[in-house]
Specification:
With 755 residues, the chain is of the alpha/beta class. 43% of the residues lie in helices and 16% in strands.
Length: 755
């Protein structure tokens, strides 16, 4: 027989009154269970709260033995309550004791009750506890009773999230919301950052949960959904998204969800049960997230991000908030947490307050990673579900060396990392003392150490680190952080500032390396099956000669009366270098014809990053003034391994004998033609790999500013002749990458080489 349900709206009204009473948390929880039991006409109502140790503790009950409160507990997955917490789904049973998961706790006195209804207490899809009602009679609870209990659970979730229940936590325990969490991501930028979470796009906190007028809330919902649909249609019809592409596909998915009647009907039902429109959206999305988080299908899990974003957009529409990042005063130790972000967005934050960035997406070659490295900010990417599980203000540690993130870390971990930061600071102080000392090995061989840069903020590091120059200046970063295509005058002023900041040291400018993953927001992107090997770098420049010509003219103006080094990226055939050189020679003739001063000395080179050039080295080194090995892309194409793909990126090593043989072939050929060659890339900045490069014959390496000190310390303590004599024969011996690394570590240890 059906209970005489008083109605969810009546229940919520009474709950609001209880929430307003000036009583402590335990008294409030005790009143809530009495209220729910009376409303649902249940003989029992109990609240279990999830602790940080994975145990569900009985926090309040009406109908069971009150002495069992704070004494009865079940692990997640144990008993019916534990099953609900594990699955994040309601459980509605007419005969609970017959269920195989039923776990009897004699201290509660629940053996007299048969029917059972339990719902998870959810917030942002995360289980914080379980709410249960029970009756002696054998019955199945009706759908509106389930809905009423779920709605009430949302109110309890906000009590937990607000920290109200912390006051009644037993000594030595913590609630799950404050549980330390560990994420294993991918290291993007070296360094360690300790600080507090700043969500790049903060979730709107819904504080008004209980509605006065359901009809008015339904009208608000309808108006907001219409505005949301119109805004999505406008975006899709705008020039930026008129063509096919990834961004358009995302917006199409948003529009599909925004017109989904099933999604909207669930929100309307939650409003009819007494929630405000924004609270209803949050409740439905929390339920959906809890279910989808347990899916193994990667496509469904990916759609969860789309639904999350759409729900947040709708809540912002309802509350009159602007969509997008909210500018707020940063704490002194901000750690930016985001699903993903652009390079320009990172630069919008105050650099002096940012300790690290942590991303759910992002890869080693993403724009924000490049800028983070340039700014010396620790960064970790591919940390799944980090945004949903982090709260603004949470303590967090980002380890850019190991790719680990510690959210709400335990004190021992925090202390260990604080010591690690102090140790790094001491090491950096030691490296700074080396900055004015020559980069010469123990046996007298000079290895020039240069800097990779791409922003003006990088340039002070040239003198601070003692670098001999800038081996790679990525000109595309100026374009990536701009809102419109930089004019020739803007480029000229920028390049002049770069040369001035370098203080007479050589700067090697790489022409625009855009395309592939480096898409400029103001240039229409084209869809490519494999953009890394598509229309990018010099291919783009030669097909768009106006853009290449403008950049070259700006560089020539900026370097008037000085030395200028320019190199062209991703050259696949020597003929491409000759075409690019012809563009430059025409620009020099144009400037001279109009009476402009040109650079005193010009040097032209190429990036060796496509394997086909390995079979054109004789022709290449006769044509160019210098060359730079782009080890990141060269290794990617050499091994057919996408560095941004975590499934394969870790399976291949730059210290493989095959790749090292290719690098040795390049430097041997360059030496035979007396053509200077520099190696730029991540391996140049790691002391162990830099040891190998020096043994191969490389006498010029270019790296990030933070890597220069450790590499210089290694060079100055290295006996290069002894290393080369023992290392080179091993390249042709059977054995894998691990053996070469093991040999280098052993050599360093035996010969006091600093690693």
């Amino acid at each position: 027989m059906r209970s005489t349900l008083a109605g969810p709206r009546v229940l919520l009204r009474r709950l609001r009154e209880v929430m307003a009473e000036p009583i402590n948390a335990q008294e409030r929880l005790d009143k809530i269970v009495v209220l729910i039991a009376a409303n649902v006409v249940a003989e029992v109502c109990s609240v279990y709260i999830l602790r940080a140790d994975g145990v569900l503790e009985l926090y309040a009950t009406e109908g069971l033995n009150r002495d069992a409160v704070h004494k009865t507990s079940l692990k997640v997955g144990e008993g019916l309550v534990g099953l609900i917490a594990a699955d994040a789904r309601p459980l509605n049973l007419p005969n609970a004791q017959a269920h195989p998961a039923f776990a009897y706790r004699p201290e509660t006195g629940e053996e007299a009750y048969n029917s059972f209804l339990g719902v998870p207490i959810l917030r942002a899809g995360r289980t914080l506890g379980v709410l249960v009602v029970q009756n002696q009679s054998h019955r199945t609870y009706f759908e509106d009773e389930v809905e009423a209990l779920q709605t009430t659970a949302m109110v309890i979730a906000e009590m937990v999230a607000a920290g109200e229940l912390e006051a009644i936590v037993q000594q030595g325990t913590k609630l799950d919301l404050s549980r330390p969490m560990h994420f294993q991501g991918v290291a993007l930028s070296d360094g360690v950052g300790l600080g507090h979470v700043v969500l790049h796009e903060p979730r709107v906190v819904v504080t008004n949960l209980i509605a006065e007028d359901a009809a008015a809330e339904l009208e608000r919902l309808e108006r907001s959904i219409n505005r949301l649909r119109i805004s999505l249609d406008d975006l899709l019809n705008s020039g930026d998204f008129a063509q096919h592409g990834e961004h358009r596909e995302v917006l199409e998915a948003y529009r599909m969800f925004a017109h989904d009647r099933g999604w909207i009907r669930k929100i309307e039902e939650a409003i009819n049960n007494g929630l405000t429109a924004e609270a209803a959206v949050e409740k439905v999305q929390s339920d959906t997230r809890a279910r989808m988080m347990r899916q193994t299908d990667p496509y469904l899990r990916e759609r969860l991000h789309d639904l999350d974003d759409l729900a947040h957009r709708l809540i912002r529409e309802l509350m009159g908030r602007q969509h997008g990042p909210v500018s707020e005063s940063l704490p002194q130790d901000a750690v930016i947490v985001a699903r993903n972000m652009g390079a320009a967005e990172l630069l919008d934050y105050g650099r002096d307050r940012i300790r690290a960035i942590a991303l759910e997406e992002g890869g080693p070659t993403s724009h924000v990673t490049i800028v983070a490295r340039a700014l010396g900010i620790a960064a970790v990417g591919l940390a799944e579900n980090l945004v949903s599980l982090a709260e603004s203000g949470d303590a967090v540690i980002v380890d850019g060396e190991s790719g680990q993130i510690h959210l709400r870390p335990a004190s021992d971990i925090e202390n260990a990392y604080a010591e690690k930061v102090r140790f790094r600071a001491r090491r950096q102080a030691q490296y700074r003392r080396l900055r004015n000392k020559p980069s010469i090995t123990r046996d007298g061989v000079e290895v020039s150490l240069q800097l990779n840069a791409g922003l003006l903020v990088d340039l002070p590091a040239v003198s601070e680190s003692g670098a001999s120059g800038v081996g790679l200046f990525r000109t595309e970063l100026q374009f990536m952080v701009a809102s419109a295509f930089p004019r020739m005058s803007e480029q000229k002023d920028y390049y002049r500032q770069v040369l001035d900041a370098a203080g007479g040291r050589p700067v090697t400018f790489r022409t625009l390396d855009i395309g592939g993953d480096k898409v400029l927001p103001y240039l229409r992107a084209i869809q490519e099956e494999n953009p890394a090997m598509g229309w990018r770098a010099i291919r783009f420049g030669l097909d768009r000669p106006g853009i290449l010509r403008t950049q070259i003219r700006a560089l020539l103006h900026a370097a008037a009366g000085r030395d200028l080094k320019i190199m062209f990226p991703m050259v696949t055939d020597v003929s491409e270098f000759h075409q690019a050189k012809a563009v430059l020679e025409r620009e020099i003739k144009h400037l001279r014809r109009h009476g402009h001063q040109v650079p005193e000395r010009m040097q032209l080179g190429v990036m060796i990053e496509v394997p086909s050039l390995l079979y054109q080295l004789d022709e290449l080194f006769q044509a160019v003034d210098f060359a730079s090995v782009g080890s990141n892309d060269l290794f990617q194409f050499f091994s057919a391994v996408d560095r941004g793909n975590t499934r394969v990126a870790g399976r291949f090593d730059t210290m493989s004998p095959a790749f090292l043989r290719a690098l040795k072939h390049i430097v041997d050929k360059a030496d035979s033609y007396r053509t200077p060659v520099t190696l730029c890339g991540e391996i140049a900045g790691r002391p162990l790999e830099a040891m190998a490069l020096a043994a191969l014959g490389y006498r010029s390496l270019s790296m990030s500013a933070s890597a220069l000190g450790p590499v210089k310390a290694m060079v100055r303590s290295l006996d290069l002749a002894r290393l080369s004599a023992r290392f080179l024969p091993r390249l042709d011996q059977p054995g894998g990458t691990g053996q070469l690394r093991e040999f280098l570590r052993g050599f360093a240890q035996d010969n006091d080489t600093a690693l």
